[in-house]
Amino acid sequence: MRLKIKFELSGKKQVLPLNYQYPISAWIYKVLSKADEEFTNTLHNEGYKLNNGKTFKLFTFSKLNFPIHTWKIIPKSDRMQIWARQAYLTISFQLPEQMEKFVIGLFNEQKVFVGDKISGIEMGVVGVEVIKDVPFDSAQGKEIEDESPASRLRRLKNVRIRTKTPIVLGINIEGEKYEQYVTPLHAEYKALFLNNLLDKYSASGGKDVEIEDLDFEVVTLHKTKKEKPKTDLQVIKAFTKEETRVKGYFYDFKLSAPKKVIEVGLNSGFGSMSSLGFGFCEVLGI
Hints:
By secondary structure, the protein is an alpha+beta fold. It has helices spanning 21-32, 37-46, 100-107, 189-203, 259-268; strands at 2-9, 14-17, 48-49, 55-56, 59-61, 71-73, 79-82, 86-93, 111-115, 120-131, 142-143, 155-163, 170-171, 180-181, 215-219, 230-236, 244-250, 252-258, 281-285. Helix 4 crosses helix 5. Residues 143-147 have low confidence and may be disordered.
């Protein structure tokens, strides 16, 4: 399920930090906390669990969208000046169908401050619109004829997808204290990507799909293959003791998988840290 949240901005010119993903994530959690205790515990405290203890918060969101010519990045700073009166944000959830109408109601008429200790913008929700699911027809993925269990779930080949927010994946390297963020050009990137997606599918209740039923290929956006995918560095919890820098990558990719698996990626985000706004993607076609 995808929701388009429409905002009205207060005041005149406002200044928004470029690192605004964490404040938006915190606001989404705050809104969802108004739900009943069982729903809140499932999504926020426990998430969706695997038998090995891994948990996933199965939602993600887009960047804030402002009308053209109503914002600009302030030179030599980590801020952008906003004089728009409207904005919108798309939030994507992997939720049971019976919860969808309930979640829509939670966001109506909410208010939010998006910023940090230095600056931010104040907005109020003026509309919530449901975005229809992506139609997976013959123009967006060719069905594969085979006898595997995945074929019974309508397995699609080479569905082309574009990152709208960067995808983050990490790997444990011997001698390093923390997990290291890796580029899509890394030898193990494909396996990391597909295992993460399959874990999310399994955590959401999906069955009968194996890693062999999936395939992934990065599609270069540049004129030569020597050029690297575009990077993005987002600061989480800026100006606090918990400040963390997260590196992700923008690129197109082709994904072959059962329809339900692709939907989980689109609904919950591809890669890690999706609930912080990473891995929000859109289908382009073949």
